[in-house]
Amino acid sequence: MSNRRWFQIHLSTAIVLMFVASVLVWCNMNAEKVGITPALWAEPEPNYKPQRALGWPFPAYPSYDLYYGFDKSGRTLFDVKDEWKFLPIVIDAMIAVGVIIAAAKLCASLIRRRERNRTE
To answer: How high is the pLDDT of residue 84?
Structure first.
């Protein structure tokens, strides 16, 4: 049995976790042009058109263009609607924590295996 406390990690594990967390942040902040998943929330009104969404794997901050029609000169009238979605934020956070924990467990098991092979 190791003398390490339960919250101690190796420096190499901390570096790997830093890279994993930075990739997750990049995935969440990268705006994608995606449709909205109706399983997580109701579709917007028919005149809403999704333009971009932030969040991975579920869009937590969708941005819509609301089309009103045309003015007298023929230009399209629209407004932008941005809103936060609570359920996708929670799901995205749980997935991110799960990915980070899985990466930490993988690194720790690889380090333990290497230490065990050295002692044999």
So the answer is: 86
Reported as half-sphere exposure (CB side, CA atoms, 13 A), residue 74 has a value of 0
Asked whether the beta carbons of 96 and 24 are under 8 A apart, the reply is yes
Per-domain boundaries in the chain: 11-119
CA dihedral 28, 31, 37, 43 (to 10 degrees): 130
Residue with the larger pLDDT of the pair 108 and 4: 108
Q: How far is CA 64 from the centre of its chain?
A: 20
Distance CA 11, CA 8 (A): 10
Q: Is the pLDDT of residue 64 over 80?
A: no
- Whole-angstrom distance, CA of residue 104 vs CA of residue 110: 10
Rounded (5°) CA angle 88-60-84: 110
Encode pLDDT of 97-119 as tens digits.
999 999 999 999 999 898 888 87
